[in-house]
Amino acid sequence: xxxxxxxxxxxxxxxxxxxxxxxxxxxxxxxxxxxxxxxxxxxxxxxxxxxxxxxxxxxxxxxxxxxxxxxxxxxxxxxxxxxxxxxxxxxxxxxxxxxxxxxxxxxx
Length: 108
Known about the structure:
By secondary structure, this protein is mainly alpha-helical. It has helices at residues 4-14, 18-54, 58-64, 72-104. It starts with a helix and ends with a helix.
């Protein structure tokens, strides 16, 4: 949804000199890349924790299925493992995309 305030901000940004736009975007990319790398590290560590705990990957567990005697903890871990795996993939994609932008630079 566009508002008058957003249009004003967009027009102010558009009125900046090209080198200033590049600087703003480059700094933003650097900040976001740092944030996403932290998220990636956290997600990787959570996934690794579950892999070590259950001595298998989530893909292997999905193929085998939960054991018939799986307790409440394992069911909760299974749900969280899926969450952290999805978070890992999202963070990995964001880091790759932002690194591509940072390496390529901003063309204005």
